[in-house]
Every structure is written in C-alpha cells, then in structure tokens.
C-alpha cells in the first residue's frame, strides 16, 4: 500500500518545488489535489487487499496506517 502513497507524496513535493512562488490559493489547490490522489491510492490498495481475500480488519488497519497524518477517521476521509 505504501508505494502508491509514496509516489503521490513525491509527486506533490516535486510540484511544490517546481513552482517557486505560486499564489497561496493556487498552492492550496495543488496541495488539495495531491492529498486527494494520495488518499485515492490508499483506497485503491485497500480494495486490492480486500480482493486478495485478506480479512477486513487487516485491510482497514493498513488503510489507517497509509492515511495517518493525511486523512481523518477510520475510513480515511479528507481533512477539509
């Protein structure tokens, strides 16, 4: 589950570095887009975990770990 999250976070970091001084609203929008992508990647990995036949609790635990500091709640909801 971690590789998609790492890729999304790396893409977000590169996007931030590439734009030296964007206006604050645009930067916030790009950060929000990156968070959505990272959360989507975590949910995709959770779906794959469930498809593999693993127990719900194990897949939820992995989802929670992937979303720690990124999202809120047991099911990885957006922080707005």
What does this structure look like?
With 80 residues, the protein is mostly helical. It contains three helices and no strands. Helix 1 runs antiparallel to helix 2 and helix 2 packs antiparallel against helix 3. The mean pLDDT is 83.
Termini distance?
23 Å
Estimate the global geometry from the Cα principal axes: elongated
SS element count, helices: 3
Radius of gyration, whole Å: 14 Å
Estimate nothing, just give the exact number of structural domains.
1
Largest sheet: none
Helix fraction, binned, reads: over 70%
Strand content: under 5%
Number of strands: 0
Low-confidence residue ranges? none
Assign the structural class, choosing from mainly alpha, mainly beta, alpha/beta, alpha+beta, or little secondary structure. Answer: mainly alpha
- Write the H/E string, N to C: HHH
Mean pLDDT: 83
Present the secondary structure layout.
Blueprint: H1 2-18, H2 24-51, H3 56-67
Helix pairs in contact: 1-2, 2-3
List keywords for this structure.
mainly alpha; 80 residues; single chain; elongated
Describe the structure in brief.
This protein is mainly α. It has one domain (2-67).
